[in-house]
Amino acid sequence: MRASATGRLLVDPKGGSFWFDAGAVCLDFAHTGGEGQYARFETLREPSALASWLAEPPLSAAMTAPVTADDLTAAKALRQAIWEAAHAQAAGRPLPAAAIATINHAAAAAPLIPELAFAGATDDPDRAATLGAGDLVFARWAAPVGVTQAMSTLAREMIELLTGPLAGRIRECASDNCPMVFVDSSRPGARRWCSMERCGNRHKLRALRERRAADR
């Protein structure tokens, strides 16, 4: 479990991939697909895909029960609500009431609960009694680890983001045709692009061509 790191490798349907760090796990989740014109970017096409996404760092929430079709539907509803709320915040518009209701509903459930565990822990009482300060301790999510708990954790993170000190730094990529949204947590607060590898480099190349054309 690594709650401090964010970012995912995204694959373009046309080919190629790039690293995108939305600055928050809930916003990373919002970019796993979408509705309408964004349906072609869908990565959560089946319950197992949702389970795999949640099990990857930084959330590292390995499900302790099978993910169902209903779980997937609820997760996609929250994803859309986070997307809509983030874009409204970035544009300075009022947050959509339906999105707020969906986020609040998800957050009302019990979230993922962290716990400490010994590496190599066992149910053997004799062995458990010997575990102590010399054994490696790590953090994990306490059971049950289900989609409901994971969605509550993401929804609560979104609520904290929208009401916290970084609320004014939720931004949409400065590219004319990129709808990706992120929270700029950098010290200078000068981030403009979803990724320098993608839109940042495209902007630099376009500016270079324009300067060369002007020189000619």
UniProtKB/TrEMBL annotation:
Domain Zinc finger CGNR: 169-212
Superkingdom assignment: Bacteria
Gene3D superfamilies: Jann2411-like domain (1.10.3300.10)
InterPro entries: ABATE, ABATE_dom_sf, Znf_CGNR
PANTHER family reported for this sequence: BLL6575 PROTEIN
The protein's name: CGNR zinc finger domain-containing protein
Species for this entry: Paractinoplanes rhizophilus
